[in-house]
Design brief:
Helix content is 23%, strand content 35%. It is α+β, with helices and mostly antiparallel strands. The chain has one domain (2-113). β5 (69-76) and β6 (79-83) form a beta hairpin.
């Protein structure tokens, strides 16, 4: 998998809102991913960047699809680097952490709407 575009926002990921650009007044961040088996870039919404066992991960949702993709995440200069998660055990642990964070946020938002 190749990747390597900026997320589209102008914020440092270590700023107040952790560069999912979910700060008030900002559109959701989008990055463009080129998969090895495709010749075109796919626009993906950034659902979140999070850490598990001192490793950063990113959750992406390709636009017009319901899938969620999770990759190891790092930055090299101005480029974002995504790496495949190599083992089922690592993926299961990271996916569980993402689910807990993501669904806890959704439940909290639903609770404030009532």
């Amino acid at each position: 998998m190749e990747e390597n575009k900026k997320c589209g926002c102008e914020h440092d990921k270590h700023a107040e809102h952790d560069c999912g650009c979910n700060a008030e007044g900002h559109e959701d961040a989008v990055i463009y991913v080129t998969f090895e088996d495709e010749d075109k870039e796919v626009a993906c919404d950034v659902l979140g960047i999070f850490e598990v066992d001192d490793i950063e991960y990113i959750a992406l949702a390709p636009q017009d699809e319901e899938d969620v993709l999770i990759y190891r995440y790092s930055e090299e200069g101005d480029d974002i680097k995504l790496d495949e998660i190599e083992t089922d055990e690592e993926y299961d642990k990271v996916a569980t952490e993402f689910d807990e964070m993501f669904f806890a946020e959704e439940e909290a938002e639903e609770g404030t709407e009532e």
